[in-house]
Amino acid sequence: MSAPSFSSFPPSFASFPELEPGPSKQTPSPVRNDPADTRLQHSDRSSQRRDKSKNDKSERQSRKKEKEKKPSERERHLAPHEDSLRRNDAWPTDKILVDERLKAEEDRRRLELEGQEHTQWAPHPLFYSDRRGDPLNITYGSLNASHVPKYRPVSHGKYVLGLDGAWAVFRRAGKGVEITVGGRQKQPSLTESGSRALLAAPSRRLVASGDSSRYEEVDGFLRLPSRAGRRTEQNYRSIIKDEANSDSESSSSEADEENSDDDQGSSTLTSHQLAVKALEETLASNPSSIRTWLSLVSQSLSAVPVTSKNATKARSEVSLSILSRARAAHPSNFNSRILLLKYLLAGEEVWHGSKLRAEWEDALKLGGIDIWMEWVEWRIRKSGQGIDAVVSDATRALKALGNSEDSEVDKLRIVWRVAVAFQEAGFYERATALFQAQAELTFEVPQSLYGLPVETQLESLEEFWDSEIPRVGESDAKGWSAWVSSGRPEAAPANATIYVDTDTTSTDPFIRWHNDETHADRLYWIPVRSIEEMSISDPYATVLFSDIKALLLPLTTQRAKDAFRFIWLSILGLHIPGFVQSLANGTWDDRWSYRHLTTASHLSSIFPEKGARRQAFADSHAGTLIGREREYSLAFGSVKDWSWGVFGPLEWVGKEHWRMWTTRDVQAVNEEFVRAVFNQLRCGTEDYEWDVYALAFEAAGNVKNALKLSRSFLSTARDSLPHWAVHAVLERLRGRVEDARKVYQTVIISTRRSPTQGFIGQLWWDWAEMEWLSGDADVTLRLVMRAGNVDGTGGMMLLRAKRNLEDIINATHGRWKDREAWVKLRALMELLTASPPAALTVFDSQPAGGVGELACVRESLMVASLVMLYNHSIILRAPTPPAILRNRLWIAIETYPSNTIILGMFLEVEKGYGVWGHVRGQLGQGMADGGAKDKGVVRRVAEVWVSGWEKGRWEVEVERTRSGLAAAVESDRTRNSAVIWRVALEFEIRTGQLQRAKSMLYRAVSECPLAKELYMLAFGPLRQAFKPNELNHFVDIMVERGLRMRKSLEEYGRVTGTRGMLDDRSAEGSEDEIEHEAKERRRLMPY
Hints:
With about 1100 residues, the chain is mainly alpha-helical. Helices cover about 55% and strands about 5% of the residues.
């Protein structure tokens, strides 16, 4: 109920009209007291009384007659309302309304009888009664202080002048007063919960009845359903109707009642409940549908926000309840690996340790690489026994997977995960040694050992390892096979590697130790020889063959060998987009494999510069506001990801030649070591795919060096079309279009080749794209027609060229990339001769590839079409409706949310509009199958980067970014990712929230106990937030969990107290004491 308005009251007493007193209140004028006049006046008064009595009598009779006519109408109008108002305790208010109307009517009649004109009083009433509420009162919950009208309190402030006596002042509030009726209880205000509930939107969802003839008319009446008891007496209708009709009507009435009950039940369901109900109905008819069960889990979890209090445990309990039902609903569901893994992941937060171990042992009986991978991941998180326990668990998983050729790639995934665990724990030399030994076993087996058992080969490899001859990746490495054939010579003395302290200026021992430790981890990760002095001071710098022997695999298939080489590149810091998903689609391996995002160069590119501040939106010039032009960073950032094969290593987009590897991507890489790996693992002249990646790595640093390497490849493979195609691309990348054109003319024109031959279509497309981007559309069109084996111009020639290109597209190709190149040529012809929509039609009309290539082929065609439109409208600035590219980008980014090529083009087209909601909406939480779509590591990090894409907007998006990262560290998908925790901690550090980062760091080391990089943050960027005793406790935890520390903290002086004073006492043997104390603590643990 809104407070009454006082806007009708006069602003002051001067505005009240001056009224003459009425007949009942007139006072006689003072006159002379004359007896004659008194008698005369008395007689006159007597006659006036008689006349007045007659007039009054006639007036009363006329009023009586009028009242006899009026009450019937008024009573008919007021009678029902009076009853309802009495029931609702609203009678006093209505009584006031009726009294006001009666009083106004009486005043009007009295004035007419006295001969006065009523119209003179109409414009000047004593007061107005404004009963219309102000809608803003509902919006803001109270009256505006400036809207309270002037009023005059009377009777010691208990009443207000001009209001009826029934209204009394309840209390004073500021400059106004609150009034109520007759001193009763205060009326509810708009801010109270009861009033808010009445004003709120109805929570019921009204559902229209599907029965159009629900209320059937019977003899002019509608029979309505009722819960009241049936009457015992019969009416005349039941007498004249037969028994059959009576029974029919009775059953119809009961059916209507049931339908009414159903409608009432369904009208109270929300959209979330309706979705759950629909999924439950589907599962009732098909309980074996795994997809439906997962949708039910997602829909149920959507009601529990990820950032709410105790969300992790609550979500786990909800998931456990549904997944338990799912596994018991059908026999096939019990053996479903995806249901089992989600079931175990949810139980990890609820079950006791013994029950969780028992559940995992039961799950391992089902087998499969997915279960073994998640088991190894769980053991890394929860074992707490150091890196040696991780090796033991991985060895068990490798033995369980068998020795079949199909399992070789699966085993490589486990080895990859263990190598990443080595790096996370600080054992970089051990990770490098593992891949060096595996490379020797895979590519450098001596000829005399071919066909022998693996145990025999490993014994010979151990001899080579102990000889400490240079291994793969090191300079002057000849390989195991060359060492055996040369008679097993002794190793020459190598240059000793020494540690260099990088920080000699800081007085804080913790900061000095942090700087030296992180610098050593970044530089020294190649194993040292046992004869070097460093092996004595740091025993973990030397890796024995027994430390890695259990993890070595006999790889025989070409797919496994290729996968091993690319895995090693990832370990070395070269991220290959889409490679992780190519090994096993739908896995969560990106949680640990995307460690390149935590390097210093990538973190500095993800977050804006520290000096960036919010810019003013407008400037004032001569009193006129002029809006500033919005400034943006590059639309294509350092976060790169797409499906395997969608974008080649040397393909680029945009004027900045954004591609797979740029200068920033190779900053944290040991270029000499990587260059040696590319050279020593090359499998002959036909290994063109490996050569393309080697050239892409060289081009990231210097294109001229890449061209030199390409010429060396061509010197031994002069007839290799892929090598010529890459060489021409490098010439284009350097800006030498003429040299690239000579390559295309020599390779394609000089020798006529079949259009279905491998890489011919790729060469034609590269040539046409180069001429098109150079701005010569006529030359490009003639070139495309020549590719279709048509010379000349004109409409008939165009039709013939289109038909020939269609025939080439429909022919059989060895590589799907060759077919895609011909599709792009066909679309480019439509773009040059017709319109952009016609070119898009060519892409959309293409069927997908094989079953295994369906996803990547579709994504590749989508990216190709978008890049063509992007070059046409953005790069070449050709007249194009902006909606064509924008609408297609919206569809693409919803379909492929983790493709950063699409994201970059989407940001580029959004620059001119300045509608941040479009960008934010596309990056929001997606919905799939009724629940929230899980976001991977790339999507989460890309959202952080996009927040600072528009310059000056970072401060506005800080809270939104913090909310997204909070959801990421709570989500089951990314909660156990050290990459996500590192990005979240870096965000808090850069925003200056050190205490928040400190509390988050404790959670991070709990979820990722072997991530040394997370612990080191307490000694470096977060040093101000930690006390020395807390940091000493951190060191004890690192030792207890088996993390590798290259130098002891005591070498920098022991820190005691809270002020950080140095204790220069001798700390000889202190590290052994810490290790012994940690082992003793683990032994005494009750669990």
